[in-house]
Amino acid sequence: MHQNLKVLILAAMLSVAGVGGNLAMAQGEVYTLNPVVVTAQRIEKKDIDTPASTTIISNQDIKDKGYTTVGDALTQTIGVDAYSYTNGAEDLGGSQSRFYIRGMDKGTLVLVNGAPINIMNYSSTEGIPIDSVDKIEVIRGSNSVLYGAEAMGGVVNIITKHGGEPKTTVKAMYGNYNSGYQVGTQGENYTIFYDRHFYGDYTDSNKVYPGKTNYAWKNGKGQRDSFYTSVKLTDKLTLDWARVEANKNRYSMEQINGHRTGNKVGKYEYDSVRNNLDLIYNDEESHFKSILAYNSRRLDTTNVYYNKNQERTKTSRGTNYNVYNFNFDNQKTWYFNDNKDSLTAGADLKYEHYKSLSDSDSRLGRKSYGLFASYSHAFNDRLTGIFGAREFVSQGNGWDEHQDEFLPQVQFLYKMSDKWSLYTNVGKSFDMPAVNSKFYSNKLKNWHVVPQSGWTYEFGSKYISGKDSLKLDVFHMNIDDYFEWIKEDKLITGGDGGINVQVNGGKFKNTGVEAEYTHEVNDNWKFNLGASISDPKIRDYGTNTWRQNAARVQLSAGIQYQKKKFFGALNYFLTTDREDSYYTKQGEFAKTNRTWDHAIEDRNILNAVFSYSPDKQQSVTLNMYNILDRHNPINNNENWDLPYNWTLTYSYSF
């Protein structure tokens, strides 16, 4: 597997030698507290002029907070929560990671340089090396008008590094749970990163219940190889490619009366390959942009079983599939009224394909199309209105019915001054069921699932000066046909109680307030504060009962200090007042008999980062994670994040 990756890397590096052209985007743009935001309106606007709730994680922020993965950065962002089964918000076989914005599951669209990378409604960022990232734009709120399905809660756009002075960086990392090395090189027309990561054993990876239905889990040793390249083929055409090959292991461990015995019951060996490949044509003179994106993931799972003597007794194939999608997106912008007004319009199409490798006849494809337009009109020097609409059509395929959705959106921005703006944002959004939904049950092939859809209402304020940034917003979400997972025997007579089936549940609602404040005290000191208080809740399938669906409270605080060659920072993120656990205290499925009896514990993340750079070429960085050494639940199954852990990294550039 890894030999193939090395060949691909060599081919990409050799191709760089013949690449010419000038960069359309200068690398190393200086980010102030009012950076340019591209995602929210599909055209470049300053943050202060963007009528949406935004968080911009710059390359400097990544260093200041000690983030080692894109997942870490998003997990510690106000209004965002990660759902995963392992640390770093990474995938664990078929248990793919994803991100919630404002408590909305399967409602976050992740882009890389504007190209979508979601697969089967999962928004994993595992294949994007953090050192290749220039900035991350997090746009909360309805974005389906401009970006289509999967943008109900919001959009994340990862902008990678492009161009700059030729430089090669070699990095080595060692830690008590994570180790690895990385080689990166960049020049005027290319960026290439190769990263090899090693995972250590992680025994206490979940809460242990006294019930008989659950095993204790152990995450075993593993390895991940990541390759990312961005090559400027011409002055208008860019090729981006992210590839990750991972081998991870998970053990089911015997537990008796709520205690682990150390005996293996089974082992799940995961081999996965993910590709995100896109061509981006950007003609800045004619304001035309076209993106062709291809995303794929292949998963091969082997199940191994052990007897009481810890001997292998049986081996079988587990969840195995090959899934891919194509996205073709085109847009053009026209400017009027001395560039005060603009019209952005375009069309996109998407094809999704899923094939189960366990059953040669289990495959399905789905096509969808969209037309969209957004008109921005300046009523005067202070007031701007933005009026958008999308028409979406999805073809029926024997499982999903034909769908036709019309989505409107209205936004207003009022500039109190050059530093202070008020905005309102009202829009309808939707999300399609995953293309593989039918394969969870052979008995429900005609159980049609319609899109979840609804409205988001938002009002906010932004004050951004040279050294201060204060953002405040209030929002309300009201979503119908919310996706839920129900045991098959609860839907049909003779159903399997061990199979979860996706259905349209009742409703999802969330009302809340979010605030973020950043202040640069002087050249040495900087601090940040953040808070989100909301009430995410759902009305369960077949009932009129409302219950909490995600955490109600998030708090963040950080302080950073820079003095010549030394840098230090302490960062804290709290997720509290969380939803009920998937299991009862006895380890039974709580939803089966509607017997929720406890909530997930708080997630306290206290991290520290210290670095020393003796010169421009070298740096040594110590990252310390989960300093409080807590069992931090990372999902409602009460899987735990890593305990206290550290990494020491040496980096050399030439």
Helix content: under 10%
Shape assignment: globular
Count of individual helical segments: 4
* Separation, N- and C-terminal Cα atoms: 30 Å
Mean pLDDT: 88
Biggest sheet architecture: 22 strands, antiparallel, barrel
Q: From the alpha-carbon coordinates, what is the Rg to the nearest angstrom?
A: 24 Å
Structural class: mainly beta
Number of strands: 37
How much of the sequence lies in strands comes to over 45%
Regions with little confidence, pLDDT below 50 for 5+ residues: 1-31
Give a structural overview.
The strands form five sheets. This protein has a 22-stranded antiparallel barrel. A five-stranded mixed beta sheet has the order 3-8-9-6-7. Strand 10 and strand 11 (178-186) form a beta hairpin. It is mainly beta and 654 residues long. The model is unreliable at 1-31 (pLDDT under 50). The chain has four helices and 37 strands.
SSE arrangement:
Elements (H helix, E strand, L loop, with lengths): L1 H15 L19 E2 L7 E2 L6 E6 H7 L4 H6 L4 E4 L14 E4 L6 E5 L2 E2 L16 E8 L3 H4 L6 E7 L6 E9 L2 E9 L3 E10 L16 E4 L2 E11 L4 E20 L2 E25 L4 E19 L5 E6 L3 E16 L4 E16 L6 E16 L4 E12 L8 E13 L4 E12 L20 E13 L3 E13 L2 E5 L12 E5 L2 E14 L4 E10 L2 E3 L6 E3 L4 E11 L2 E11 L26 E10 L5 E8 L19 E9 L1
Parallel strand pairs: 6-9
Antiparallel strand pairs: 1-2, 3-8, 4-5, 6-7, 8-9, 10-11, 10-37, 11-12, 12-14, 13-15, 14-15, 15-16, 16-17, 17-18, 17-19, 19-20, 20-21, 21-22, 22-23, 23-24, 24-25, 25-26, 26-29, 27-28, 29-30, 29-31, 30-33, 31-32, 33-34, 34-35, 35-36, 36-37
